[in-house]
Design brief:
By secondary structure, this protein is an all-alpha fold. It has one domain: ADP-ribosylation/Crystallin J1 (ADP-ribosylglycohydrolase fold, Orthogonal Bundle). The protein has 16 helices and no strands. Helix 1 runs parallel beside helix 13, helix 1 packs antiparallel against helix 16 and helix 3 crosses helix 4. The longest helix is centred in the last third of the chain and has 20 residues. The two termini are 16 Å apart. The site of magnesium ion has 6 residues, from helix 3 and helix 14.
Length: 310
Amino acid sequence: MNEDGFAGCLVGQALGDALGMPFEFMSSGSISARHARVVEFLPSPDLAAGQYTDDTKMMLCISESMVERGHIDPQDVADRFVAWFDTGDLRGIGNTCLESILRLKSRVSWRDSGSSGKWAAGNGTAMRIAPVGLLDCQDLERLRKDCWSTSIITHNNPEAVAGATAVAYVIARLVTGDLDEETLLADSADFVGESEVARNLFKAQGLLSSNTPTAEALATLGTSGYVVETVASALYCFLRTPADFVTTVSTAIMGGGDTDTTAAVAGAISGAYNGVGNLPAHLVEQVEDSERLQRLSRAIFYMARSKKEV
Ligand SMILES: [Mg+2]
């Protein structure tokens, strides 16, 4: 377990989110017509350069809840989603999260507030799950349970839960120094079990092994807001260039579609592996709430370590 990986994960997510933010919903072709790579913060019509979006807002709700409560308390996480919603600073919140939070506000329990059905297989839970991967990095059965409970608050859908679980599982492996590039995708697919998420992870492995050109691979895996696509594409981008955070995140953005989320997930994963010390210093300094993210990651590190010792 290394502290630098914990900070790299949360800061890396915010960096990916903020770098991808100006390109949300643009096609791969229209991004590449303007940029060869995306390696610096840019503004959007709604947000300033370096600001993150709803992905990191919700990830912060989970991080702050776990630090205050000492464990995952889904009721407290749900309360924080509502408190965030009430600030009005929603930054591109997805419909599934919006509808579920409205149900929470009308006093529906966190167990029943989440949307279900096939339209609830969005990436709104994979995008916020990183701190669960950190806290539960040495207890994979607790990780599985915490992924489920934090996910169903908004996304009561087996693919959405599987996608979040795959992301948290990978982060847990990486911060415990357990990267086997050859088996990571198959192991995460095995961990989440029979699902579309697992099938697309195997497809990503095939594309990596066959050295398919990146743009073609991402078009095959998909980069929409569908969690099955997001998780496989983010992991594909990481495994193309495991030691190169900036290229991983830029590749995720150049794939187009839900760029802030694909890059946020890829950034959390790559940051967990590379550590905050290997992220570009000027971006770490400029990203919104950098200090807050690093402070939370330290607190989660000490909690994860003491859980191991208990
Ligand atoms: Mg977003």
